[in-house]
Write a sequence for this structure.
């Protein structure tokens, strides 16, 4: 006697047909189970997305605002330093012109004394020539020393300005990289 199974009003006889029927039923059960699992995962994902809240970036915004204020203050100070250096350069130029003018007046005075003293004897003329040479050396040395000090001061101020400019640019680069990393953060995109 052969095995007989009835499903939905259809009778199946024989072992091979029963095996095919059991295989089809187990496959249909597997498909249904997979569908239910997929639906459950979909609902969990939907609930996760609905419960998502964006991170609080107000602290980052506050720090960025403080850094922007700091950069603005540094720029104001740099502008002030540049203005002071410009003023010092102008003062140095004015002083140099005053020294040159005074030197020209001294030379003119020496020339006048020299013209008046031509009638004096040879010793007086020799003394005047020595005094004139000494005065020229002193004046030249004073002008050279003053020019050297002025150049040195201007170079130091320019070096300081360049150093502060470099630091400011480095700070801006760091801030820009931090800001770009924050902007590139995929959690911030919606």
């Amino acid at each position: 006697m052969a095995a007989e199974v009835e499903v939905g009003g259809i009778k199946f006889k024989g072992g091979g047909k029963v095996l095919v029927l059991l295989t089809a039923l187990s496959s249909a059960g597997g498909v249904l189970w997979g569908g239910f699992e997929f639906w459950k995962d979909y609902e969990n994902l939907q609930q996760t997305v609905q419960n998502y809240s964006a991170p609080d970036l107000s602290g980052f915004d506050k720090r960025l605002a403080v850094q922007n204020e700091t950069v603005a203050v540094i720029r104001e100070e740099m502008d002030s330093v540049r203005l002071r250096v410009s003023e010092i350069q102008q003062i140095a130029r004015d002083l140099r012109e005053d020294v040159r003018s005074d030197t020209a007046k001294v030379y003119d005075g020496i020339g006048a004394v020299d013209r008046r003293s031509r009638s004096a004897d040879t010793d007086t003329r020799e003394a005047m020539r020595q005094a004139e040479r000494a005065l020229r050396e002193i004046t030249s040395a004073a002008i050279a020393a003053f020019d050297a000090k002025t150049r040195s001061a201007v170079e130091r101020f320019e070096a300081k300005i360049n150093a502060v400019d470099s630091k400011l640019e480095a700070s801006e680069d760091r801030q820009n990289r931090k800001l770009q990393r924050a902007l590139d953060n995929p959690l911030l995109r919606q």
